[in-house]
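Input sequence (263 aa), recorded before submission:
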Amino acid sequence: MSRLEGKVALITGATGGIGRAASKLFADEGARVVLVDLDESALQDAVQSIGADRASYHAADVTQPDQAQNYVQAAVDRWGGIDIYLANAGIEGSISPIPDYPIDVFDRVMAVNVRGVWLGIKYVVPAMRERGGGSIVITSSTAGIGGSADMSAYTTSKHAVIGLMRTAALEGAPLGIRVNTVNPAPIETRMMRSIEEMRVAALDDATVTVERTKQAAAARIPLRRYGNPEEVARLMLFLASDESSFCTGGVYMVDGGRSAGSP
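Predicted structure, token format:
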């Protein structure tokens, strides 16, 4: 039997690199998936690649309570309930020291990366309770367990969701709801290209290129490379499945050994 047979998975940030990989993997493992993101055309493309018999979508801004309620209700209406919630929507913000960091950008990062996760949990938990339990997986980052210069908003947000996860795990345990975070190192995604480009622009040094910036980041990872979205998705699959039935309140690294060494 497939590992998620009979399960319904709700996935935010579903059209990004990690979200799309997880959506496909979860569907391949038997789940019915509801994809949530802002870009409707990208959502339509993602559903088409999976198959409308296994996937549906709901365009939404995860920071808005009514829209969060609506995407949860859409999953219940379409597939009968929710067993898995992958809180994966996130943005990177800007690259600049705290005194120069734009306040509006800080607020937006916190809204998407923290408030969005909190709202999802708020409205998903009652639906999961109706199913007798479930699994919530939150995408954090290696930035969630250490500092990252010039990325105050992103780093703060990824620390915050670990605290949120631990609280939700304690609240969810009596309901049969498990909650964990997955913490990737740099992954081959649009977000990492954006971060690399912003770092190069901030240095204003013609000798520093995006490729050299990437090489320097990869050199700090013991496996000497970025991960790929499918490698993150496989850990998410484990935590979403019944194979991780005794796992809750945990911070799970998928970082090529990055967190094992010194900063």
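Checked by second reader. Residues 70 and 100 are 37 Å apart (CA to CA).
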